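Subject: sequence -> C-alpha cells, single chain

Hey, anyone have a minute? Need the predicted structure for the following. Not urgent.
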Amino acid sequence: MRRALDALYDGAAWLAALFMVGLLVMVLTSVLGRQLHFNVPGTDAYAGYLMAASGFLALAHTLKRGEHIRVTLLLSALRGTARRALELWALSAATALAALSAFYSSRLAWQSYAFNDISTGNDATPLWIPQLSMAAGTLVLTIAFVDELVLEWRGRRVGSFSEEALHNE
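Reply:
Had a minute. Here:
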C-alpha cells in the first residue's frame, strides 16, 4: 500500500511538472508573439489553466515531503501526549478541509460539464477540462492527509518540519 500511495503522490508531482513545462511554453509563445508580431489566441488563458493545474497537482507531494508551511510555535513547545493530540487534531481538521475542497471542486467540474460551461475568453474552452486538475489535485491531497493522519494515529509518522524556521530571526 505504501508503494502505491507514494507512486500516486509522485505521479501527481510529475504531472504538475509537465503542466509547469506547458506553462513555460505558453509564456514563451506569448512573449515571442509580441516580439515577432504574431498572435496565438488563448495563450494567456491556457497559461492560467496550466498554472492552476501544476499548483493543485503538486499539493500532495509537497505535503508528503514536509514542505508545506507550518506554524510550529505552539507545537514546538509541547511534548508527549499534548503534542500528539495537537498533531491529531490538526491533521483531522486538515483532512476535513481537504475533503470539502475535493468534494466541491469535483462538483464544480461536474456542473461545468453538465451545463456546458465555457470560458469567456476567445479560446472558448469547456471549463470542466481545466477544473479536472483542481479536483484531482484536491482529491490526492485528501488522500495524503488521510495517510498522514493514519500514520500519526498509529505512531509511525516521522516529524517532517525543519528546525530552520526557529533559527531564521
